[in-house]
Predict the structure.
Amino acid sequence: MKLIVLPCDGIGPEIVDASVQVLKAASERFGISLELDYEDLGFSSLEKYGVTVRDELLERSKAYDGIILGTQSHADYPSPEKGGRNVSAAYRIGLDLYANVRPARTRPFLQSNMREGRSMDLVIMREATEGFYPDRNMAKGWGEVMPSPDMALSTRKITRHCSERIARRAFELAMTRKKRVTAIHKANSFHMTDGLFLEAVRHVAKDFPEVKLDDLLVDASTAHLVKEPERFDVLVATNFYGDILSDLCSELSGSLGLAGSIMASDTNCCAQAQHGSAPTIAGMDKANPTSMILSVAMMMNWIGEKQGDENAKRAGRAMEAAVDHVLANPQTRTADIGGSMGCKAFAAAVAAAVATI
């Protein structure tokens, strides 16, 4: 199995190293031969090549079985004209990684941020290649303009093609879970754009008669997620809504640092932690690598499904189980969730647990 590893910025190198350590342990257990190629991305690429992500690297990344992508400090990059290209957007558009899959679940042994007695086990399927994002909704140019210093306009793009394919992935996933999909929208205000998205989801639903489809306004969904999260199984949403709701769900379930995430096309998969680069603690061994480890586990499951590789799926499941095994012990948690372990020690504990799960 050949993977490309892109540590990137802030705590990225630390949590990527942690996830690779756990991945190596799982691969050794299940007889997977790993080949890892490392490349510069983000600030290291900017310093070396004058741009945060190179076109040739994007093209080369397509040939790998999977991509491990560290965190990025987008807010600190120079302007795109000066080489500060948005790394996530470049990969999502360049490799057509349209499905941003973001699970959120509570764990009985960890404190959640929900009402007492409430639990959560859901997945947000977020379309990631269009929507209210200026860097990915135009063939040429930018999706935001300022006609005058006191006026700014932003353009939103929603297409039937992208709406239908993310909906199809959502229904396929729901078939393996509780067979329920909730479409998130604001069609009462965005009649054409969200109306088109909702129409596309309903069209796809006809191919999945076993799955129950309902829909919710995005503002109402936030209230229901707080009040009654158990009602949800798979939520499908356009880019902007999915981005916001996934952070909400992850934090409600315990912490943004506890949720994995992948970006996938029909042929490529990229593991990427849900959280940011946390530059203030970079290099201090304080980062929680859980999200990155779980993201790599999700990528292994994706590779296993696509390639019919049972050992890859076993490795992914073992990585996820090992994380829960370590988190279940209050003494083996990182400081952000009440423990005292550093990033390296936590990774070593999870890697050791993989052998016994």
